[in-house]
Amino acid sequence: MDSIFVEVQRAKACNLIVGIVSRAPGTSIDNFNSAFDSSLDKITKEGRLCYTMGDFNLNLLNCSDHRPTDDSVNAVFAYGLRPLVTKPTRITPRTATLIYNILTNLDTSAGILYSDISDHYPLFQFTSSCFQSTNASDKSFVTRDINIDSLNSFQNDIGSID
Questions:
Q1: Strand 16-22 to strand 50-55: parallel, antiparallel, or no bridges (unpaired)?
Q2: Which ranges of the chain have pLDDT less than 70?
Q3: Are 1 and 38 spatial neighbours (Cβ–Cβ below 8 Å)?
Q4: How many domains are contained in the chain?
Q5: pTM of the model as a whole
Q6: How far apart are CA 51 and CA 53, in angstroms?
């Protein structure tokens, strides 16, 4: 299992553990489940709020027919987490799979952005008040200046990638 976990600290809001997890296709699901279980155990023993997301390469739509996937899903629920995505994140003419997900122990929601930008649909999540500032002066907005020059620059940048 490849993963990285960070703690997001805020002076006037709750701290949060954010993790990115990936299991490469063809690698041992049992080894992944063991490592993932160990990570979840540490986070939940400390009573931390968390988001764990990534490419689990376990099709949650098949958990009733695939024991290792069922074991992974059972561990997620046993540690008080829940998957925010319950619909397929990749659909082809012959298959529908749910291998990307966002897991959390917060009361929040997520969704799927249905777009052909990739072979997997992008996921999004709405944050809770845990991230909202209590100071009005902390509010800022970021915008993008989209014009012909910026579009040409973007196309040139994309064209230079191998």
A1: parallel
A2: 128-141, 162
A3: no
A4: 1
A5: 0.73
A6: 6
